[in-house]
């Protein structure tokens, strides 16, 4: 895990980089579809912009509608329009919140990509979102 400092008291590791900072990334011109209802893969945005395309995704099989992971010296998060149209649900919210708290504990900056239509609607999401976090007891 050379993306992380040894402790929360240390600075994030800095490594030599061969990517020029001013490089053009032509694929970014076409990754977002012209139709606002069409989905795209957020990884197609993240991977070309990180240094040397070095991105380590955290929990890629859980809450696939949000992407969290490590780049060089920064952490990256963003919703995934290819899954549930990027709509956030309880699991995505928890995954994102835990990732932000982790980054904060190590003083690592976060780059966030946002293209989200909102939260997943429904009483089940509302109930589980509050009850599942221990804030509200179920009324019987």
TrEMBL record:
It comes from Ramazzottius varieornatus. It holds the Pfam family Carboxyl_trans. One of its GO terms (molecular function) is propionyl-CoA carboxylase activity. This is CoA carboxyltransferase C-terminal domain-containing protein. One of its GO terms (cellular component) is mitochondrion. It comes from the Eukaryota. The gene is RvY_01536-1. Signal peptide: none annotated. Residues 20-140 form the CoA carboxyltransferase C-terminal domain.
């Amino acid at each position: 895990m050379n993306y992380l400092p040894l402790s929360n008291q240390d600075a994030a590791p800095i490594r030599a980089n061969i990517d020029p900072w001013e490089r053009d990334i032509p694929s970014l011109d076409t990754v977002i579809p012209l139709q606002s209802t069409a989905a795209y893969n957020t990884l197609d945005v993240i991977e070309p912009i990180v240094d040397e395309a070095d991105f380590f995704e955290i929990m890629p099989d859980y809450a696939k509608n949000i992407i969290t992971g490590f780049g060089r010296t920064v952490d990256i998060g963003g919703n995934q329009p290819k899954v549930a149209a990027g709509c956030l649900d309880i699991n995505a919210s928890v995954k994102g919140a835990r990732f932000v708290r982790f980054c904060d504990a190590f003083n690592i900056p976060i780059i966030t990509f946002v293209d989200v239509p909102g939260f997943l609607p429904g009483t089940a999401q509302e109930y589980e979102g509050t009850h599942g976090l221990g804030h509200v007891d179920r009324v019987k």
